[in-house]
Amino acid sequence: MSMIFGVPIAVLSGQLLLGLINGAFYALLSLGLAVIFGLLKIINFAHGAFYMLGALCTVVLFNTLGVNYWVALILAPLIVGVLGVLIEFFLLRKIANEDHIYSLLLTFGLALVIQGVLTNIYGVSGLRYPIPEVFRGGVNLGFMFLPYYRAWVIVAALVVCIGTWFMIEKTKLGSYLRAGTENSQLMQAFGINVPLLVSLTYGFGVMLAAFAGVLAAPIYSVTPVMGANILIIVFAVVVIGGMGSILGAVITGLAMGIIEGLTKVFYPEASSTVIFLVMVLVLLVRPSGLFGKEA
Amino acid sequence: MTTSVYASPARKSVLEQKQRSERRKLMLYGAFFVIALIAPYVVYPVFLMKILCFALFAVAFNLLLGYVGLLSFGHAAFLATGGYTTGYLLSTYSGLTPELAILAGMSASTLLGLGFGLLAIRRQGIYFAMITLALAQLVFFFYVQSSFTGGEDGLHGIPRGKLLGVINLADNLAMYYFVLAVFMFGFAVVHRMVHSPYGHVLKAIKENEPRATSLGYNVDRYKLVAFVISAALAGLAGSVKTIVFQLASLNDAHWHMSGEVVLMTLVGGVGTLLGPVVGAAFVVSLEHQLAQSALGDWVNVILGVIFILCVLMFRAGIIGEFQKFYKKNFK
């Protein structure tokens, strides 16, 4: 078997693929965080919980109503997105004028409640969701085996990320969003319904998290606490990349996934900490983040 | 000759009022002290010690959130570092006295605080919370993988030892009065800091950081010193807690613990000296009651709901709301 740096190519490329998939999830989640932060100026500590809700929704819809994967891919993010809009409307809006620390704490409390309730219902042992029929099996690329579903996850995540970038940078709605990020009061004065835009933005950011959750359902074990640990990693990713640019968030997410995958091959002991170490390095060298504008 | 401004009746009454409120405060602290002295004869001492440890932890945390406006979401790392260091030393070196082990634990968390602080104060606001949370997770994984922490099992059966080689801490009452003394020391440190010129600069930074900078204060250094002291006291709380319960576990390092100390401070009253103490007593008692009741599995949900209610309706916390009520009706 051919080797690179004393590691079989198949092992290396396998871990690279896993890293890329993790990176796709980091990208989707940090993208959602960045979108929400842009307009609401808050960090959504419940983001991991919404990611988990997306995955859990998929499983529960399948088990109870037999809803298939493709419908769930649309339906689960919509359900979670509506929940997000309601949360913004009934809770976050009430304290929008207070110190942003309070909004952060509110979302933290929400995450505790959502996770706690679902843990009591579904336990923590993990639910299984079958890989959709179309994506069973894979293709042998010669140097590695590529399961179809994993390829699909990467493609779908990239398409959604690029679509989001396009929407924000190139469309009219996106221009409102960018204007709101700069100065929402002025935009309100121009007659744009800012509160509605804020609700929809929060809902959209949350939908991105839920979409990532649906993608994750067939390959990760679905548990009510699955979102908590990944969220902390995504925070580190956000600190590394800075929340200034959409593409920056996507690139950082993917890159961190790949670095994590490589670490698993060459120094497995550090695989759970390497992203945090990169964060420390970035803070020392470039405190505002790789793509960040603000200090 | 004009009358001195100091002798003006208005000034005099202000001074008198100040003196009266100082006296009232002293009486309040005195009452608390007397209650704390009698309490172990009424309530189970270990339970009281748990409250005191978490109260010290929350007081340390509140120094940052309440007086500098920095939200640290990684304070569990300091609690755990103090606990693990003390626990490891006491169970490895049988001749070591507890106060030395506590000093070592406190030093370890102080150093860690310096590292965290140097990194985290490079970013502001919401980033600060994310960075401290991520750094604490780094520390958590380090403790999971290290051998000296006992990994998932933690350290058990840590001997309490003899304080200064004389007082046997195996006795719960002796232990309690020692923990009370440690708590009062920590509280006094924070009390002194907050009321010193240094503390006023911290408050200025909290209110308006650019202005404090423009007045020539080295804002980053002020923040760093506050962060390190807060970490040291959190480590002290962790060290003492480890000796009380004779165990150190990963629970203390988990992000959940960082969230819990935020909740204690929030419930009691951010930016008030007694708030974190009352908040810690409230949360610890609540968890204790819930664990024994049928709602044991719902602890996290209930804590989350309290979080949400506090943020939406009682942002001033128990002490803060009480102060507002008092000012409105009795002044």
TrEMBL record, chain A:
Extent of the signal sequence = none
Localization: Cell inner membrane
Give the GO terms filed under biological process for this record: amino acid transport
- Membrane protein topology class: Multi-pass membrane protein
Q: Which Pfam families match?
A: BPD_transp_2
Q: Where are the transmembrane segments?
A: 20-40, 45-63, 69-92, 104-129, 149-168, 189-220, 226-259, 266-285
GO CC terms in record: plasma membrane
* Transport listed as a keyword: yes
**Where is this chain primarily localised?**
membrane
Care to name a GO molecular-function term for this sequence?
transmembrane transporter activity
Q: Where on the tree of life does the source sit, at the highest rank? A: Bacteria
**Alphabetized PANTHER family for the sequence:** ABC TRANSPORTER ATP-BINDING PROTEIN, BRANCHED-CHAIN AMINO ACID TRANSPORT SYSTEM PERMEASE PROTEIN LIVH
Family, according to the entry, reads as follows:
Belongs to the binding-protein-dependent transport system permease family. LivHM subfamily.
Protein name in the entry: LIV-I protein H
The upper taxonomy is: Bacteria, Pseudomonadati, Pseudomonadota, Gammaproteobacteria, Oceanospirillales
- Gene name on record? livH_3
